[in-house]
Each structure stands twice: as C-alpha cells, then as structure tokens.
C-alpha cells in the first residue's frame, strides 16, 4: 500500500512538473487533475520509448523512465530560469459549492469502491486492454502486447499503465480509471472556475459525475474515459488559447491531444477539429506559426507509435481503409442514402435521449440544445468552442457512416457509443459557460440595486 | 418610444432568464435523478458483493468458460504451451486467464514445433488427431491432455 501511494505521488509529481513547463495560469484543481493524466501518460510513453531500444519491462525501467523525464524537465526549467512556484491560490467556497463538492466526492468514492470490489470482467477490458497489460507484466516486455488480445494496432498507454499497476494486485489495476474520472472532474471544474463560473461550475461537475455512461466507464477497464480526459482537456485549453491568445495553452492542448493519440486508435481522427480551429485562429490573427507549433507535440507522441506498428509489429489498422473508402464516397457525392438516413435517425434518438439511450446519455444533449436555443444571440462569443463541438459532431457522423460501410451497424448502439464519451464534458462545459454569463449579469444587477 | 423599447428588451431578458432557470433545473433534476438511482443501485450491489470471492464474481460473468480456464490454469505449469481448437481463437480472453502460458490454435503441426511441456485442450470433437499422454477430464465436453510423445529411439 505504501509503495502504491509512493507510485501515485511519483506520477503526480512528474505530471505537475510537466504541467508547470507550460507556464499557464491554471487553478489548483486543474493542476491536480492534469498532473495525474499527464504524469501517467508521460511515464507510459517513456517506458515505451525505452522498450524500443531494448529495455525490458520492470521496476528498474519504470524508475529509469521517471528519473529521465524529471531530469529533462529540470534541465528545461533551468535553461529557462523558471522559478519554483509552490504557492496555492485558495478562495473560500460558498455553502452551495461545499454541498455540491460533497456530492461529487461521494460519487467519486462510489466509483473507486466499485473498481476495488468488482474484478476486471468487461469483455473488451479482458479481451484487449487488460490482457495486453497482463502480457507486458508477466512476460516482462512491451512487445508482448502485440501478441495478446485483439487489435495489435491499438496504442499502449493504458496496457502499460495496467502493467505498471499489476505490481500491486488486481484491485489496484482498476483504480487507474476512477483516478481518471476524478481528474476529468477536476479539470472540468477548475477550468470553469478560471472562466469565472462559481456555483454553476459545481452544479455542472455534479451533473457530469452523475452521467450514467461516464460513471459506468470509471468502473470498467476501458480506454474510453482516459481518451475522454485527454481530448476534453485539449479542447478546453484550445478554447482558452483562442480566448486569451496565450501560446502556453496552445502547447498544453497539443500535448493533451497527442496523448489522446497514444491512448486510443481513434485519437488521430479527433485531430481534425482541433487543427481546423487552430488554423482558422492563425489565419485571423496572422500567427502563421501556430498550426506548426500545434502539430509538433502531437507528432512527438504519434510518430514513434506509428513506426512501431508499421515496421516492427507490422499491424495495420483496418479502419484506415474504411475511412478512405467512405471519404471517397462523400467527395464523389456517391452517398448511400439508406446509411445516411440510419445515422440521422440514430442522432435524432440520441439527442432527444429516447428509449434506452436515456439510460446511458442522460439529458445532456437536451440541456445543451435548449440552452443554445435560448442564448442563440451569444453564439458569436463562443464561436471557437461551438466550432470545435460542431466539427466533433461532423467527425462523429463520419465515423458512424464509415462503420456502416464496414457492416457494423449493430455496434452503433454499443461499441460506438463509447467513442463519443468526450461529448458529455464538452457540451456541459459550453452550457455552463452560457448560463453563467446570464447569472453573473443578473447577480451584478441585483448587487447594484441593493447598494442603492 | 425608446423607453418602451428598453422595457420590452428588459422583459425579454427576464423571460429568457426565467426560462433558462426552469430548463436548467428541470433537465438537471431529471439527469441527477437518473444518475443517483444508478450510482446508488450499483453501490448497494457492491456492498452485497463484498463477501463474495473473486472466483464466484468471475463465474457469474463467464460461467462455464471461467471454470474451464481455471481448470487449465490449475493443471498446467506457468511455462506450458497449450494447444486450443480453432474456435477458441475468437475468445481473446484466453490470454487474460492463462498468462504467462503460451497459447496456440490449430492442429498437430504445431505440436512438432513447440517446446515441452505441451498440453492439448479437449473440447467436443477436438483433438481430431491422436495425442499421447495422460488425460485430465473437466466435464463431458472438455478436458486436457498432457502431451508426452513416445521417443522414436525407444
């Protein structure tokens, strides 16, 4: 147990040191949430890079990877003459915020409790993510992951993390996911606070924590929640860059989306919305370097893994062919109307939370569309964030359409639902921002009236 | 006229604010009600499962398959090679339950290539070829053969 706590502290320390490289003005909550995700991601990536030069998987390699990363960070900080900033800004929370925080804490504990009590049993967890992690742990080499489980081309962030936690036994392995759950809640809450939302931020975080599908994924060993953490955070910081024009946020967003590519095979497809918005932003501001800067960290995480899958284990992704086929269909306007109609009907049921879909999606879409309709005059203010969400929907539409070409219509309801896990935090984030504007205005009006 | 316009805009803003509060509170309540019900139900289930063993929990999910995997695990050493019939190739979980044992799928060709100790899974009609060695029976459908070929020199 003491060793497990030490490992967690090591991950958090690495993640916090890595986050501090970006010099962003982050809240304490965001720093803590990012520290876990970035710490674990960089550690697993370090182990993977060491395995490329022949290092076996073991405690020594883990410690070596941790020390090398810390040394690199320390060197960069020393070169830039950064000051060590340990000051924590803490403002007194209000009573409703305390009550809501209690609710969020209870849900997080329930998720941690379930992950400790229930073994890894979900089909994809046992057949893909956990089996790869167990293979790396038992056979002592990262390459073993290529021979176990289905989809050898899937990235290894989660399998290596699972292998790492296997040193402490199976209940500890599943704790990776509730920690990601807490991290996503912290980043969500902290960033809303940074944008000036207070009680609404707490309410939004509680809604997110109690979304059935998000909670479900915090208790099973799938890579979808970690992917949602990386992608959601990347969009949140990309929006911060668009709003404040601070390049530190741009780089942070880039690293996060790069780690998304290192987490799930659909990671690269979500680059499209982000890169499009960065390019639009660069064109409007005449900052031509921004898209190149944004692509840099993504390539750092993406290229080694691609080289590994193409040239070392020779595992090609079947999705690339399907995606190219459906792109060709869309560009030549040779669209299959039956497939199009099927996807549109699915979206309609999904957005209105009809039938069984309500049980997993809750009422997030309904909330988002109602609030957006109510505040349609303020769309301009959030044009970048809304553009990101819109492009995400377009990508999702494309994924669904491609899946139908592949004859996987049945999976739309089950497996493919998971691909969209990051929509919950993004839609709620936008909803809370829209609502908070109005709440703030009415509160300031009331204050002015009271002062008279 | 201008005053009337201002008042109308103010009324519209107020109506919007009230509508927002109603929609936000209504949808949030529906959502939270759903979420709380699910989290509570699962937490109660987890509390009830606290005293249940790992094997029993896994058996609840995987039934016969988990029992068979446990049987193979108990009767084979860690460095064993296990030959499965082809239909097991789709069950990606085999590795999860049997690691670090090496798993192969196919026919007797593989038996010549692998290092001992080697075990062949009995499942329905499989193996369709002759395998020498002691047999361990799991149930009427399945079992295991410890492959021990007679050396040709004897």
Description:
The complex is a heterodimer of chains A (452) and B (154). Chain A is mainly alpha-helical and 452 residues long. Chain A has 20 helices and no strands. The mean pLDDT of chain A is 86. Chain A is 72% helix and 0% strand. With 154 residues, chain B is an alpha/beta fold. Chain B has a five-stranded mixed β-sheet. In chain B, helix 2 packs across helix 3. In chain B, 18% of the residues are buried. The mean pLDDT of chain B is 85. Chain A binds chain B through residues 107, 110, 113-114, 117-121, 123, 126-128, 130-131, 134-135, 138-139, 148-150, 170, 203, 206-207, 209-212, 215, 219, 358-359, 362-364, 366-367, 370-371, 374-375, 431, 435, 438, 442, and chain B through 16-17, 19-20, 23-24, 27-28, 30-32, 34-36, 38-39, 42-43, 46, 49-50, 54, 57-58, 61-62, 91-93, 95-96, 99-100.
Shape by Cα distribution of chain A: globular
The main pleated sheet of chain A reads as: none
Question: What is the arithmetic mean of pLDDT of chain B?
Answer: 85
The structure class of chain B reads alpha/beta
Tally of extended strands of chain A?
A: 0
Low-pLDDT residue spans of chain A: none
Beta-strand content bin of chain B: 5-15%
Number of helices of chain B: 5
The radius of gyration over CA of chain A amounts to: 22 Å
Helix content of chain B: 40-55%
